[in-house]
Design goal:
109 residues; alpha/beta; 3-stranded mixed beta sheet; 6 strands; globular
Length: 109
């Protein structure tokens, strides 16, 4: 495992661990199980939000305005991939293929 692989794995572990301590989650965080923004209140509450869904949806809508939404391919399975899959399902894509890199360096789906 390369150094960059170790840091990526540990950051995903940290993010998943942080979700356990969030006091308030919006619907998107509950649906996809990922928060990329943590808001700390003065009273000690932690609120989790996900802005990846909004950002991806806003950027893709202009690209696919008048096109058939049949198949999408996602390369990578990092934190934003959950948000992308969520948006593509909302947009009623018929087929979504996810390619991700295993630790041995090969891509699979």
């Amino acid at each position: 495992m390369k150094t960059s692989d170790k840091s990526r794995v540990s950051s995903l572990v940290f993010i998943n661990e942080a979700l356990k301590y969030i006091n308030k989650k919006n619907k998107i965080v509950n649906d996809i199980g990922a928060a990329n923004v943590l808001i700390f209140s003065k009273k000690g509450y932690i609120e989790g939000k996900n802005t990846d869904v909004y950002g991806f949806k806003k950027s893709i809508l202009d690209l696919v305005k008048n096109k058939k939404r049949e198949m999408a391919i996602i390369i990578g399975s990092g934190g934003a991939a959950r948000a992308i899959i969520y948006v593509l399902i909302q947009m009623k894509y018929k087929k979504i293929i996810l390619f991700f890199q295993k630790l041995n360096g090969f891509f699979t789906h």
